[in-house]
Amino acid sequence: MTSRPFPASTLSVDAAIDQLGLGRFQWQLLLICGLTWAADAMEVLLMGFALPGINASFGLTPGAPEAKWLLSATFAGMFLGAWFWGWAADRLGRRTVFLTTVTLGVVFGVSGAAAPGLAWLVVARFLTGFAIGGTLPVDYSMMAEFVPTAWRGRFLVYLESFWALGTVLVAALAWALSSALPPAEAWRWLLGLAALPGLLGLLARLGVPDSPRSLLVRGQAAAAREALNRVARLNGRALPDLPLEVPASAPRVSPAQLFAGGIGRRTLLLAAVWFGLSLGYYGIFSWLPSFLKAQGLELGAVYRTTLLLALAQVPGYVLAAVLVERVGRRATLVGYLVASAAGAYLFLAAGTPGQVLATSALLSFALLGAWGALYAYTPELYPTPLRTTGMGFVSGMARLASVLSPSLGALLLTGQLPVALTLFAGCFLLAALCAWGIGVETRGRRLPEGMDPAR
């Protein structure tokens, strides 16, 4: 006589999310987070488009120190914001930070458009960066914690692909405004209009519940069940009538835990990957419009070219979404980073306008595919009590690199192109080695809940 297994007495959040499946809730969440993600892309990239007009408005010369401050201010704010808001989201809940950061981003973004002087503008851009720096760790943690295991990698890449939408929108908006208004006026409209998608994202976020995983580790089992019931209703499924499996303990989150044991090794390697990829990406693309203009392109042609490069990101994301589930997160990330290093040297060898455009498109394709794989991989490497703290720390290292990149990217304008691109290619290769050194593949695995990182 064969024995039958006893029915489960509790239900884990992972099991609940997998049983509720992929449906309307996850697609709505993707669109809501994606709208804000596109708005963040616009805020991060718009200074590269606005700089010629700001130079005209305040009498700055190209490459002036004040221009570097403006390009660095947003990233400096994001550096501090990522660390602060990532920690706050693990302590206070995902939804609270989810709403607060978007609200502040809209307020400070609009205030920059009305800046009466350069100092005001630098402060406004810093505060905008501080606000949107929090959306990076929180959005990805929310998405990772609400999507079934089999679909999680693809959805995290889909979310990152909204960056391309934001890039296209800001390039198209800058192009249209540069055609209709003098540069000294167009940049103010660009900053003001770029804040509007964030306002729409805020309104859409009001109906999103907090993460059930985060609620459970903070001792709010009833609220966690209600969040899962919300998923069940929208997906047309029934939540099993079992009590939720509560973690053995809800440890007090401390940033020091990011550097303990096996988690510490992951944190250091991930920080190096985020730093290297960001230094090269922003070093190239924050100065690319100015570099193209310095090569003799008129402003409208610069914006049209940048728009085409943004469109080249889309197939990079699409391929990354396929590869993270077929060959794994780690291999996909390493492959794209190596391709990015090769693309930097092909760009250096380009001798005609057509070759410059083609190699720039290859760089755009490879770098944004690498970002997609990295954003899919990182939240899966941290346990729930530390997920947004970890995302905040490593994405903060990317913002630190972003603060440094304008000075390095200025080499593109001073004729030291081989030096700049060799440095950036080296960053991509070092990031690839560190990504491979993590030694863990998360494809098809459930998110870790406890503090032991063993998988």
TrEMBL record:
Key words of the record: Membrane, Transmembrane, Transmembrane helix, Transport
Residue stretches spanning the membrane: 29-49, 69-89, 96-114, 120-143, 155-177, 189-208, 268-289, 301-324, 331-350, 356-378, 390-413, 419-438
Domain of life: Bacteria
UniProt KW Transport keyword: yes
Location within or outside the cell: Membrane
Alphabetized Pfam families for the sequence: Sugar_tr
Membrane topology per record: Multi-pass membrane protein
Gene3D superfamilies for the chain: MFS general substrate transporter like domains
Domain Major facilitator superfamily (MFS) profile span(s) in chain numbering: 29-443
Matching InterPro entries: MFS_dom, MFS_sugar_transport-like, MFS_trans_sf, Sugar_transporter_CS
Major localization class: membrane
PANTHER family recorded: SYNAPTIC VESICLE GLYCOPROTEIN 2
Name of the featured protein: MFS transporter
Organism: Deinococcus navajonensis
Organism lineage: Bacteria, Thermotogati, Deinococcota, Deinococci, Deinococcales
